[in-house]
Amino acid sequence: MATVALLGNPNTGKTTLFNELTDKYAYVGNWTGVTVDKKMGTLRHTKIAVVDLPGVYSLNPITKDESVAIEYLLHGDPDLILNVTNASQLKRNLLLTIELLEFGTPVIIALNMIDDLNRTNVTYDLPTLAQRLHCQLKATNARNKKGVAQLRDDLVASLTELPPAAALHITYPTLVEQGITQAAKKLAAEHGMTPDFARWLTIQFMNQNQTIRAYAQAHDLKPLLQSAPFYDAQNFENQIFTTRLTFIEDTLAAARRQNTPTSQSELTNQIDRWVTHPLLGLPIFVVIFYLMFKLSFDWIGTPLSDGLNALVSGPISHGANSLLTSLGALPFLKSLIVDGVIAGVGGVLTFMPQIFVLFACISILEDSGYMARAALVTDRLMQMIGLNGKSFIPLIIGFGCNVTGIMATRTIEQPKERLITTLISPFMSCSARLPIYSLFVAAFFARNQALVVLSIYFLGIAVALIMAKVYQLVFKVKGNSNFMIELPQYHLPRPDIILQGTWDKGKGFVKKAGTIIFAGTVLIWLLSNLSFHGPVTDIDQSFAADLGRWLLPVFAPLGVGSWEIVSALLTGIMAKEVISSSMIILFHFTGRTALVATFANLFTPLSAYALLVFILLYIPCFSTLATIKAETGSTKWTIYSAVSSFIIAYGLAFLIYQIGSLFI
Amino acid sequence: MSLLINLVIAAAIVGFAGYEIYKSVKRSKGGGCNACDYQCDTKEMLKQHSSKLN
After folding, report:
1. Which domain of life is it from (chain B) (predicted)?
2. Taking a contact as any Cβ pair under 8 Å apart, which residues of chain B between 1 and 54 contact chain A?
């Protein structure tokens, strides 16, 4: 089966193009680091395989995910490379293109985001570019599908009649050329390589590509290994870069056509003047988050959620009860199904609207191009802490799920920065905690729901940043890596991308309801209906009550006065959503309305807030701990993460409740 | 509905819950994530990463 490899710089719309070209949907985001591994698909209506590789600026890998591209070229043997470029950033994009053209596999260049280029009043003469680069070029705009069908047809046509492989030969300075020619000849003669591959390999080796150097060692490529000190001493890497840059500048100068200026290109600049402003950028970021929570908790999410809750605790619960009674179900089975499964799982599912609205907002921010600005704005703050904006991306992914957030730390090159970001990621308030926030803000902060949830989120960020600073000092991290992010033009978000992005982020929550939340619900039902002496009718005699009462003195200084809350907190280790379902079950309610009313007798607004802070920060769920173990490869760091987060959560909740009690 | 059927249904619910907990612990230990079942790219990468470590 023929294979097309998609390669290009980050943020060139590669994943969007992949989705348009293939039958498979891949997650699309408008910021660096979304594609962390290769994705596979088949070109629509064909059997041609398409591989989407992570965005890279060059074939010389710096991070783990960047090595996927060069490894694929070495071992994947694609029939055709589709090089996706950002048409308005060609000068930088063509640096990678040259490396691909030198590789020798036929290349088609997609000048993507062509509309962005047109808005800058510049166009390129494609025949001139094609003649200089010795390959086909196609103008596309994947977001509105412009040119995509034509590109698909061209790919099929090119694969049907593959053009003869003809690598691009740039003339490098004399000494470099001599070195390339000598080594390539020997490689071809001694190792049976094709002349093009031998030349490409030599250039990459001279360019200090670490993957290629390891490849040369592994294959004992003596013509390269013996000359390595000479190449490095002569600074061939720099000479190659300068030659390529000159070639690109000459090529673009020859093909560039300036059009009459329009005012459209100014829009992005005008918006950026405000949203990336050194002083106003951060407050705007906060306001945008506030509006997100307003939509989720006040304007759209909660009203829908209340409707769902009325449905679950009313008709569904009563209907199930009547049906089971008519079928002759015994009380314990009715209790298990109605008071356990329907109340617990159904109770958590009623929070779906808030979670989905929040994910929709995040998808809109991603697709509009704002997320890249948010990373830039937070970079200033991060730099004060000693981290860089690249840490912002895993942290914000952690708002969805800490597990994927921690996995995304792989885009950070420095091991110490990576470890620090991993350790602080669980402080990001993942979506699993939203149901419990929603319960408490409805009970105690009905008029300021969005503001209270926002404060919890930002408290999580503040704790994460403070801990990052502490770790910086403890690990003695000196300096930090540079953060480079491309700011795409603003787009009007596309509804289908928003819907797909929202569903991608939110479907985990729905699936979890049928798996771990269901399991946690049944477990807490069992614990609340059994004791050492068998089944109990009085929940105060149950295992759950014994356990909760035993630990209650520990939580009393935080303002917690009920064993049900303590037992529910313990189940949060399975998944944070289970805390809410456990509370509904332990308080014997079929829905959350009655639970919210009960809270009024158990908490004050102060103790409720202290408990929310504790829930925000205390021990991560089991999956997050397992991911920390997998990513750090260390049990020590995993235990440390669990213990330290508990201490921080306890300490902060204690301070809030105790100090607050002095004034309130 | 006889006592036996009641017991069988309850046992099935509890058994399924137990199986889900077992599956979740096993998946988490293997570096998976029970947040969602679909095989996202980050999970695929983690799997490869773990196999490299082993």
Report:
1. Bacteria
2. 1, 3, 6, 9-10, 13-14, 16-18, 20-21, 23-25, 27-38, 40-46, 48-50, 53
